[in-house]
């Protein structure tokens, strides 16, 4: 039975009790108490008093007046009082728990979609531009994005290692199909030698290191963000099922069910009395509050810092551009690379062969057919912002939880007669203590002793995740980078408020161009027609593969490449 159903049923029975009698005294009947007890515990009423009588064996609900309770009823009521508080707690935390759990699931789903989309973009790049090597590159592309997903979702894989594996696997393909394309089949031993030589000859320049930097800066914060959300759910689940002390259980019984023993089935505790009991029972939970506040603040700081090259969406959806840059850079330096590879691996004994066609079917992934700017409302950054704005409302949640329970659920409205632990009174006259363990030394209703090891364990986990969140919050500086490729073909310069040499497409508003001059080249397997200028504007970008397909024999296409301005002198 959930909390809402229980409360509705209980209120109905209270209404019946009110119609019948407000209080059973002296020789009056205990019928309403019996009805409520039978409904609450779904059992027979055999052995329950028919009328008030002395209760010398009662341990908590002690009264000089006749009582409708027995010792066994008191024991059952004590269990019920603990369950009632847990249900009220769970109802109070349900909105917060739903907020975090739904967003954690949504973020994970969005990241999975981004990974699939980025993998499709990279596959389309090979299919439409480097189709002779596309089939061979498919396994490396799939393995790379599988590792990206594993890392994001908490598996212990090393980003540096899987980035290196990808470029190690890419180099033999680029070498065989673009740098030395006259023959396209070499022995496995020779391809392995080329693969092993990649880190020595550096065919892709600094691009692998840039990819490592981007992946490290963007994947790790997103991974930590997801871990933090899962910990938030764990904190709530733990506090929802805390074990209450014996002193707390007795105080809850006295506050919630002892009035029934006197026939006061409609009474509610006085506000001050309720606050003392609730603050005493939840004193250890209140100790979570400063750490919970810091946890939400750290989540917000990390979320605000995840932009540009720290934004996983920007990095993943632009990964294929760096792959293209890497291939072009290797091609431009092909002669020097061939000489170095020949020194390391020797000359291959090879036979000409026909490369298999690309097997990627874009119709299976409709979102892989076109790259375009995502709707502003759909971006991961905006989702995080909306989530943090909602979560910020709960920064002091655990510090005010006891008060909320009394105000919203448990206590009587001011001005009405209320239960003070002994009888109905106009107001509660005992001292009302504050929140937290230290304030409970003067609590007249609940004795609070020591610390709660479960709460201490949660606090330790929160401290740890806060350190991780704060350690993942980047502090980008202005920078400027000029790099000349070894072949004199690439000139790149970006400056301003960007995060690194990796570009500004995800965070800036102006146009960012990278210039690449190419002379007299058109390698087999690359299809460029009527290409005079390819540019990237941060506000819009399109990779149009409509109608291009990936099968052998498809028509050449114009490849709109984000981030690169390509000038082919032969077409001017």
Automatic annotation (TrEMBL):
Annotated family: Belongs to the glypican family.
Name of the molecule in the record: Glypican 5
Signal peptide (UniProt feature, chain positions): 1-24
UniProt-listed Pfam families: Glypican
Cell wall biogenesis/degradation among keywords: no
An example Gene Ontology CC term for this record: cell surface
GO biological process: cell migration; positive regulation of canonical Wnt signaling pathway; regulation of protein localization to membrane
Role of this protein: Cell surface proteoglycan.
Cellular localization per UniProt: Cell membrane
Key words, A-Z: Cell membrane, Glycoprotein, GPI-anchor, Heparan sulfate, Lipoprotein, Membrane, Proteoglycan, Signal
PANTHER family tied to this protein: GLYPICAN (PTHR10822), GLYPICAN-5 (PTHR10822:SF12)
Domain of life: Eukaryota
Membrane topology: Lipid-anchor; GPI-anchor
């Amino acid at each position: 039975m959930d909390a809402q159903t229980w409360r509705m049923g209980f209120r109905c029975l209270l209404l019946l009790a009110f119609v019948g009698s407000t209080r059973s005294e002296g020789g009056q009947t205990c019928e309403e108490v019996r009805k409520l007890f039978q409904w609450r515990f779904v059992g027979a009423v055999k052995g329950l008093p028919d009328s008030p009588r002395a209760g010398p064996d009662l341990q908590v609900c002690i009264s000089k007046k006749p009582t409708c309770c027995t010792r066994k009823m008191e024991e059952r009521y004590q269990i019920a009082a603990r369950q009632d508080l847990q249900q009220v707690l769970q109802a109070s935390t349900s909105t917060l728990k739903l907020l975090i759990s739904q967003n954690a699931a949504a973020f994970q789903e969005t990241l999975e979609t981004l990974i699939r989309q980025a993998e499709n973009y990279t596959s389309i790049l090979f299919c439409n531009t480097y189709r002779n090597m596309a089939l061979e590159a498919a396994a490396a592309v799939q393995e790379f994005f599988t590792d990206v997903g594993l890392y994001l979702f908490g598996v212990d894989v090393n980003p540096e290692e899987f980035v290196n594996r990808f470029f190690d696997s890419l180099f033999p393909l680029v070498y065989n199909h673009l740098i030395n394309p006259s023959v396209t089949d070499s022995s496995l031993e020779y391809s392995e030698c080329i693969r092993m030589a990649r880190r020595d000859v550096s065919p892709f320049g600094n691009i692998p290191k840039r990819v490592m930097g981007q992946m490290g800066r963007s994947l790790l914060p997103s991974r930590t963000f997801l871990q933090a959300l899962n910990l938030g759910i764990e904190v709530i689940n733990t506090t929802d099922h805390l074990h209450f002390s014996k002193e707390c259980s007795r105080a809850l019984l006295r506050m919630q069910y002892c009035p029934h023993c006197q026939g006061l089935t409609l009474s509610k505790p006085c506000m001050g009395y309720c606050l003392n009991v609730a603050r005493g029972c939840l004193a250890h939970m209140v100790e979570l509050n400063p750490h919970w506040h810091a946890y939400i603040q750290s989540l917000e700081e990390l979320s605000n810092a995840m932009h540009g090259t720290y934004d996983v969406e920007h990095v993943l959806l632009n990964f294929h551009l760096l792959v293209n840059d890497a291939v072009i850079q290797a091609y431009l330096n092909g002669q020097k690379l061939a000489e170095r590879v020949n020194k390391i691996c020797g000359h291959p004994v090879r036979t000409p062969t026909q490369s298999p066609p690309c097997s990627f079917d874009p119709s299976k992934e409709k979102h892989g057919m076109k790259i375009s700017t995502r709707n502003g409302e759909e971006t991961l950054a905006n989702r995080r912002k909306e989530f943090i704005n909602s979560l910020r409302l709960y920064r002091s949640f655990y510090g005010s939880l006891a008060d909320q329970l009394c105000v919203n659920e448990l206590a009587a409205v001011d001005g009405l007669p209320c239960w003070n632990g002994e009888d109905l009174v106009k107001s509660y006259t005992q001292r009302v203590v504050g929140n937290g363990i230290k304030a409970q030394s003067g609590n007249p209703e609940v004795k609070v002793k020591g610390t709660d090891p479960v709460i201490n364990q949660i606090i330790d986990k929160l401290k740890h995740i806060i350190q991780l969140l704060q350690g993942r919050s980047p502090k980008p500086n202005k920078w400027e980078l000029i790099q000349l490729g070894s072949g004199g073909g690439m000139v790149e310069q970006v400056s301003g408020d960007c995060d690194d040499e990796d570009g500004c497409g995800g965070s800036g508003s102006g146009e960012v161009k990278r210039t690449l001059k190419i002379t007299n080249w058109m390698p087999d397997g690359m299809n460029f027609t009527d290409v005079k200028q390819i540019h990237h504007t941060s506000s819009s970008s399109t990779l149009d593969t409509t109608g291009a397909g990936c099968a052998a024999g498809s028509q050449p296409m114009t490849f709109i490449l984000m981030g690169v301005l390509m000038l082919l002198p032969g077409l001017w």
